[in-house]
Amino acid sequence: MKKSDRQGWIIIGIVGSIFALISALAVYAGVTREKYDPSTLCPFEAGYPVVRILIDKTDPWDAQRSARLEKIIRQIKDNLDVSERLAISVLDESGSEVPTPVFDMCNPGRGDQANPLYKNPRRVHKKFEDQFDLPLEQMLVDILRPGTAPRSPILEAVWNITLSGRMDRLVIVSDLMQNTKRLSFYRNGLSSIQEDDEYKAHVQAIQYRSITVYYINRDSISPKRKDQAIAFWKQHLNQMTPELIFNWL
């Protein structure tokens, strides 16, 4: 066999091996690909991280804060990992202690997050836009609209959104002015609640990897009440996470 023929067969063998390897990877990816819930795009198997956002709409905010909140939500969305879940709940005009879930889906991945060996980046990005990004953008219109409510059960809302699912990261947007019959920052009772058995049970049971608070600083609230509310929440939330971050909205 001529040397040139031998080299040709070697090249053909190498190219064939590469194609075989790519095909094997594609088959393996197809076999091992996770199964997803079509309504949430979340893997059926547990293990994906979760970002929970609780938005307190029991008192109105201005246009500037609405714009900042919109930017925050978009930044969180843009930084989600593939299959990371974004769950947004709202304390609304009902004053319910169980906040209304308005968005709860997993990021299917943008085109730049797709592995081109076995996924089509353009197809992946279209799925992201149509099934994740667009529904969130449509929901933002209602999320950003300010509201009012006769009561502000913020403490109970934080407890109730953690009753199911993983508790990785919590983001709270609120003026932190708890106002219920059980506990109101407009009345006395800030110290007595900490002796409450239910309060103690939740503090011990709820643990987040991190909690971020975007504090709505209202001119209508006296500095003394603001200080009391912030001190209470810092003490409460510090027991629920090793990483507590306070920002102003």
Kindly describe this structure.
- With 249 residues, the chain is α/β, with parallel strands linked by helices.
- It has two domains: 1-33; 50-248, Rossmann fold (3-Layer(aba) Sandwich).
- 41% of the residues lie in helices and 15% in strands.
- The protein is built from six helices and six strands.
- It has helices at residues 3-32, 63-78, 121-143, 154-160, 197-205, 223-238; strands at 50-56, 85-91, 100-106, 169-174, 210-215, 244-248.
- The chain has a six-stranded mixed beta sheet with strand order 3-2-1-4-5-6, sandwiched between helices.
- The longest helix has 30 residues, at 3-32.
- It starts with a helix and ends with a strand.
Helix-strand makeup class: alpha/beta
* CATH third-tier fold name of the largest domain: Rossmann fold
Please, what is the oligomeric state?
single chain
How large is the count of helical segments? 6
Terminal-residue CA separation = 77 Å
Instruction: Look at the structure and give the CATH class of the largest domain.
Output: Alpha Beta
The ordered H/E elements are HEHEEHHEHEHE
Question: How much beta, percentage-wise?
Answer: 15-25%
Main beta-sheet strand count, sense and barrel state: 6 strands, mixed
Poorly predicted regions: 28-32
Q: Give the number of domains.
A: 2
Total beta-strand segments: 6
As laid out across the biggest beta sheet, the strand order is: 3-2-1-4-5-6
Q: Based on Cα principal axes, name the global outline.
A: globular
CA radius of gyration: 25 Å
Based on the coordinates given, report the CATH architecture of the largest domain: 3-Layer(aba) Sandwich
Mean pLDDT: 83
How much helix is in the residues?
Answer: 40-55%
